[in-house]
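A brief tutorial aside. Many learners find it easier to grasp structure tokens once they have seen a single protein encoded end to end. The record that follows does exactly this for Phosphodiester glycosidase family protein. Read the sequence first, then the structure, and try to relate runs of similar tokens to stretches of the chain.
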Amino acid sequence: MMRMFDKPNSKEPHRKANPNKRRKWLMVTLVVVLGIGGIIYSLADRYLIRHVEVVVADDNTAATGSLNDEAATETEVNATSDDWNYSSDDMQVSIEKVQTGSGSDQITYYVADVQLTDASSLRSALADNSFGTNITENTSEIAAANNAIFAINGDYYGFRDDGVIIRNGTVYRDDPVRDAMALFSDGTMKTYNETEVSSSELLAEGATNTLSFGPILIQDGEIVSDFSSVKIDNNFGNRSIQNANPRTAIGMIAPNHYVFVVVDGRQDDSRGMTLAELADVMQSLGATEAYNLDGGGSSTMYFMGRVVNNPLGRNQERGVSDILYLKEGQ
């Protein structure tokens, strides 16, 4: 046995690393790295990388240059109540700010009452004038590019790859999965289940736009459920939608008479609304049909070049894939 200070036996062979073992560890490491890289790329491809499927013809290019420049400055400041009314031969728009409760239970929301002469004044627009996934612009940017008088965020169709998506009379996606909402050329609005009504039937009935998010809040004048187990998506990063959150909703009072509601939330002066509270508000406003659109940081109301509400609690909009908006003329 070798003592502490004995010299090593020169005839004792030196240990050598096993090349097969080293090669095995290198292969395992490479597989793990490639696997992680694949997962990261898959997530980026699903939620970050733009995928343009259709570029929509733009007939507003020549008319929007100065409006875009103006809107870039004005959307930094909230609109004030002294300019929340608009009247013309085509439409009447009146916006009201409502606050209820106090302290940590306070809710701030905005109600836009809209009466149209012709349903064609209510339209939809896509971010960057393109249809696909992960294509986003702020609501105010899309609105300004389309000379909108009024706008709200839409259903953020680009966050998912299913649903029935008809925009301005064109079918872009036809994968029925959930409760949806349709706007028609006669000024009516209908909530329905996508699996029960085909896109061809909707077009035959005069559907101009469909939005696929939900849930349905009011159908045939009645609140549809208690919303205790509503599930819209299983997408990565989705929050629970039952709790109080920022909200956006559209309702129809009568043909060509709409009400739009945007609720601020997750901030000191507004906790947001539950779906049940939102349904109650829509019913109290006289909506016979009402539908919940994308909420959270997306919830934005735009009017006459400025953002009315307080997105994200810091007057900072979050990019969305689409909007509903009002425009004069054809």
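Self-check: The helical segments are 19-47, 65-74, 139-145, 199-204, 275-284. If you spotted this yourself, you are ready for the next section.
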